[in-house]
Design a protein that fits this description.
This protein is of the alpha/beta class. It has 2 domains: 2-138, 3 Solenoid (UDP N-Acetylglucosamine Acyltransferase, domain 1), CATH 2.160.10; 195-248, Udp N-acetylglucosamine O-acyltransferase, C-terminal domain (Udp N-acetylglucosamine O-acyltransferase, Domain 2), CATH 1.20.1180.10. Helix content is 17%, strand content 27%. The protein has 4 helices and 28 strands. It has an 11-stranded mixed β-sheet with strand order 1-4-7-10-13-16-19-22-25-27-28. Strand 27 and strand 28 form a beta hairpin. Helix 2 packs antiparallel against helix 3 (223-231). The N and C termini lie far apart (49 Å). The model has no long low-confidence stretch (mean pLDDT 98).
């Protein structure tokens, strides 16, 4: 274990033997840091943080501090980060509240500088959050999502699989899977065809997704009627996922 002599490590922290911790970093009690983690200078790893193996935490990041929620009453909760995720400078991750008990970030994510992951948020795997993205509590971001810099995300918003969202936008409604979203107010722009192709989706699957969104957004019929039409035919798993996303939305979909 390579711990700089100026780092402050609580004896109640559980730290793997090969972890590196830089100068002036603070690790509080009830922290678990897995094998191969690298924590740079002046970071704060607060009580309730769980870092899986291979995570990189850059200068002055703050992980596991209490929620910025006036209803928080000191209840026990955690902030859990998946394997090989990278957390860049000045990023903040709050732990959960009594509602879910934890904030979670999946594996192989990239949280860029100054981004904020609020209480009870759930991020999937392979998520990229660009600089200064700020999310309120209870946001769900599914796998393989990319969000552009300086975007604000309203509480309880759900962002679907394989989405790409532009920068400097305000997200107040759910974003359906496999799409590109942008504009002011934010709206559906197109299918994320290039991203899907890079991730191995076949031409047939991409075309079926395009046909589904063409019916939902460009056919001129009501959205509820478009969903009924899709449900009345044979749906591949991706189209079924789109329909279920709309059916389950609590905030409404763009």
């Amino acid at each position: 274990m390579k711990i700089h002599p100026t780092a402050i490590i609580d004896p109640g922290a559980d730290i793997a033997e090969d972890v590196e911790i830089g100068p002036h970093t603070i690790v509080e009690s009830d922290v678990v840091i897995g094998e191969g983690c690298r924590i740079a200078s002046s970071a704060l790893i607060a009580s309730g943080t769980r870092l899986a193996a291979g995570i990189k935490v850059f200068h002055s990041a703050v992980i596991g501090t209490i929620p910025q929620d006036l209803k928080f009453a000191g209840e026990y909760s955690t902030a859990e980060i998946g394997e090989n995720t990278v957390i860049r400078e000045f990023c903040t991750v709050n732990r959960g509240t009594a509602d879910t008990g934890k904030t979670t970030v999946g594996e192989n994510c990239l949280l860029m500088a100054y981004s904020h992951i609020a209480h009870d948020c759930r991020l999937g795997d392979q998520v990229i959050i660009a600089n200064a993205v700020n999310m309120a509590g209870h946001v769900t971001i599914q796998d393989f999502v990319i969000i552009g810099g300086m975007t604000a995300i309203h509480q309880f918003v759900n962002i679907g699989l394989h989405c790409m969202i532009g920068g400097m936008f305000r997200i107040t409604k759910d974003i359906p899977p496999y799409c590109i979203a942008g504009g002011w107010p934010v709206k559906y722009e197109n299918v994320n065809s290039i991203g899907l192709q890079r991730r191995g989706f076949s031409t047939e699957t991409r075309n079926a997704i395009k046909d589904a969104y063409r019916l939902i957004y460009h056919s001129g019929i009501l959205r509820k009627e478009a969903l009924i039409q899709l449900e009345g035919g044979e749906m591949i798993p991706e189209v079924k996922n789109i329909v279920e996303f709309y059916r389950k939305s609590q905030r409404g979909v763009i």
